[in-house]
Amino acid sequence: MVATEAPGLSLTEALVRLAHLVQQVYGDVSREHDLTPQQAQLLCLLVDGPIGMSGLTRALHLEKSSLTGLVDRAEKRGLVARVRDARDRRACLIELTGAGAEIATRAHDGVAARLETLAAGLPARQRELLTGVVGAILAEDAARTGRTWSRPEPEGPVAAGVNGR
Amino acid sequence: MVATEAPGLSLTEALVRLAHLVQQVYGDVSREHDLTPQQAQLLCLLVDGPIGMSGLTRALHLEKSSLTGLVDRAEKRGLVARVRDARDRRACLIELTGAGAEIATRAHDGVAARLETLAAGLPARQRELLTGVVGAILAEDAARTGRTWSRPEPEGPVAAGVNGR
DNA sequence: TATTGTTATACTCTATAACTATA
DNA sequence: TATAGTTATAGAGTATAACAATA
């Protein structure tokens, strides 16, 4: 695999098809772990620590009521837990349970492994270039829309000892 | 925008975030045209001509019963029509209505325009390289799984005069 | 008043299983 | 028997609107 010519493939077509492929990988891996793609996305977002509902709505681009349902179902399945936010009694933080963390890690690794496999044939220089170009596109979008595709920044001093329970 | 360094972004992370971005664009554009993303995807697949239900299940990676519902709703909204396949009386072909074709074109162009905007800052060489690399990844997936991301090939002689109705 | 989150409601999307009709 | 598609059913995902509690 050398990535030479693009046989009649436009840039936008390429991006759309690539997105479908990644989505398919996500769906396949989720299913292997008995998760829906949305649950897998939620879990992967939480691996670095708890996030509040508001932060999650921004990260997932969902209405808050949609998120309530998503978290409800994940909580019912024992994947996540709601913990009260000590600093704001209206708010809560969503954190992974032990089981949730384990599944999240496996799902994340599974997706990474499959994508790595697909990109395995690319020369290192092309891999770097691809990463860089995608980074530039993401940055352009972030500058344009204010969207962030990583974890939302905590908006205040980080909770201390909130996990006490 | 010059696409220089990738600040701590791995290749797989980059691909996942790019996929989310494209999906978001798809969702935004769909909504502008009062479509669900799934309906938009269906419509865009049909712009080059009618496809049978079986071909659509392969192209969309859906169970046939899921597709029945999707087509039902699109048909109820006047976007597509089922036409009998003259060569196989079990089968039917899904085609765009006039209204459906118009919306499909606008949605497709809308997605393309937004993605073009995001990539507008990239030098031509990087654009070409991105397209080529993505093409290679898609080819790798196709070789690995047999998946096809373009229109399904018609499996027999193309219908002649099927639209007669 | 504004923000955080939930509830109520109505659709859409999806899969599994069972079915009909045709090949 | 196998294939093309539908129906029945159940659950998940999503949005809008109205609400409660807290800031």
Automatic annotation (TrEMBL), chains A, B:
Entry's InterPro entries? HTH_MarR-typ (IPR000835), MarR/SlyA-like (IPR039422), WH-like_DNA-bd_sf (IPR036388), WH_DNA-bd_sf (IPR036390)
Q: Which Pfam families match?
A: MarR_2
Q: What is the lineage of its organism?
A: Bacteria, Bacillati, Actinomycetota, Actinomycetes, Streptosporangiales
Q: Quick one: where's region Disordered?
A: 145-165
- PANTHER family, alphabetized: TRANSCRIPTIONAL REGULATOR, MARR FAMILY, TRANSCRIPTIONAL REGULATORY PROTEIN
**Which protein, by its recorded name, is this?**
MarR family winged helix-turn-helix transcriptional regulator
PROSITE patterns in UniProt: HTH_MARR_2
Could you tell me which SMART domains the record lists for this protein?
A: HTH_MARR (SM00347)
Q: Which residues form the HTH marR-type domain?
A: 8-139
